[in-house]
Amino acid sequence: MSVKGKWALVTGASAGIGEAFAAALSSRGANLILTARRVERLDALAAALRAAHGVETLVIPADLARADAPEKIAAAIAAAGRRVDILVNNAGYGQPGHFEEVGWATHQDFIALMATSYAHLAHLFLPGMQARGYGRIINVASVAGLVPGAAGHTLYGAVKAFLVSFSQSLAAENIGKGVTVSALCPGFTYSEFHDVNDTRRLVSALPRTMFMEARPVAEQALDAVERGHVVFVPGLWNKVVVWLMKAMPRPWGAAMVLRQSQKFRLRIKD
Fold first, then answer.
1. What is the pLDDT along the chain (270 residues), one digit of tens a residue?
2. In what order do the strands lie in the sheet with 31-35?
């Protein structure tokens, strides 16, 4: 992916896949706009990547669960005289528990961050990309968006499926405009994700072969974008899982997901 001198906005850049995207993009010469809630981590990451790769950086702390956050980010970028050539929509988390057990305000925040902010940021920066004849939008979805829904984490698979479909439609609308849109669908990835949603103990029991490191996920995604992939699943294990789910009758796949979700996707009280 030739990104030297381009400006990349990475959301959720303070850890995990977002941090890995920032590192991968800067190693390829892209300048960075980093946003997340934890400004100290963003500042430290920006300083490290400037020193390592000689790129420019801009840090914008923001909580993308807030409705006005995308426009505030866009305003800060404009005020700094920067542009967005590459948008990596990555911010996210998981919300364990059955749907009715979680307060609606919590669900609203989840949808705002995991779906609305992705679409809003794309809506803000897509016109500029089209006008310049160059743009890359990467929406970090999940294998969970490609397989039947699981019990627990009720909205997680749903918003990830939305991101896949949204990316496919937006990609189709931008054919011939120099703008590509892709959905990245990773599986289990080593990051803070499972600490935040309190499933570390459960996923630690899974075979290591099911996991990928965040940096290869990001690197493979950047390469896949330039090969024209609209939906990309990194890692052999994840590809096999998705292929099996597509190959078998959907009721069988749903039953298999249900069995696994009872082990790994619900809060289990000892």
1. 589 999 999 999 999 999 999 999 999 999 999 999 999 999 999 999 999 999 999 999 999 999 999 999 999 999 999 999 999 999 999 888 889 999 999 999 999 999 999 999 999 999 999 999 999 999 999 999 999 888 888 999 999 999 999 999 999 999 999 999 999 999 888 665 544 545 545 555 565 666 789 999 999 999 999 999 999 999 888 888 888 888 887 777 677 777 766 655 444 333
2. 57-59, 31-35, 7-11, 86-89, 135-140, 179-184, 231-232
156 in any annotated domain: yes
Q: What is the three-class DSSP state of 41?
A: helix
Q: How far apart (Å, rounded) are the C-alpha atoms in residues 21 and 222?
A: 9
- Which residue, among 88, 66, 77, 268, has the nearest Cα to 184 in the 3D structure? 88
CA distance 60 to 36: 7
Q: Are 9 and 3 in contact (CB under 8 A)?
A: no
Question: Is there a domain that residue 270 lies in?
Answer: no
Q: How many residues does the chain have?
A: 270
193: containing domain:
7-264
Among 93, 118, 156, 190, the active-site one is 156
Contact of 93 with 117, CB cutoff 8 Å? no
Residue 187's φ and ψ, nearest 5 degrees, are -100, -140
Domains held by the chain: number: 1
Active site residue 190: no
pTM: 0.89
63, 107, 163 from 102: Cα distances, Å: 20, 7, 23
What's the CATH code of the domain at 29?
A: 3.40.50.720
